[in-house]
Amino acid sequence: MMISKLLFSFLLLNMDTTETKPTATSEGDWATLTQDNYSIQYPTTWELDTYGQMGSSFILFSPMETELDKFQENVNLLTQDLTGTGIDLDKFTAISEEQVKTMVTNSNLIESVRIKPASGEYHKIIYTGDLGIYHIKYEQYYWVIDEKSYILTLTTEWDKYDAFKETGERIMNSFKFL
Length: 178
Fold this sequence. Notes:
By secondary structure, this protein is of the alpha+beta class. The protein has 2 helices and 11 strands, in the order E-E-E-E-E-E-H-E-E-E-E-H-E.
């Protein structure tokens, strides 16, 4: 079922293969990725992948902390065409929260809140769960605009979330629709 794919953004599954030509510009220690309908800023020390790896629109990988580091914290964006489903932000959020409970091993929904800035409404959830050998903490922002969902996700190891929270949220909060 198409809806069952909503929650898999943290796994970077194939949801949309929109072909756009990104542009990246740099100012100081931060760069800006501009696509056809959005832009996002990120530290120049983070690696930008716009090749559609596992269906993502982009993935921003943090630098490896040490040679022993096996998990790269990241921010990624997935989109999904919701045409004809009648799914709005409320329904999308409800479905996603249920899927966190049933599809993420050892899941724990920590926060679920609607954010209403002047730039447009979105929903934010934070949860933990296991991904293979890793205990992960996810922070996701959901938008549903013109029958399309946008899922922006910060993925960190659970015990490293606090270290990446400020930078991750700065990146995510820079996301703007054009």
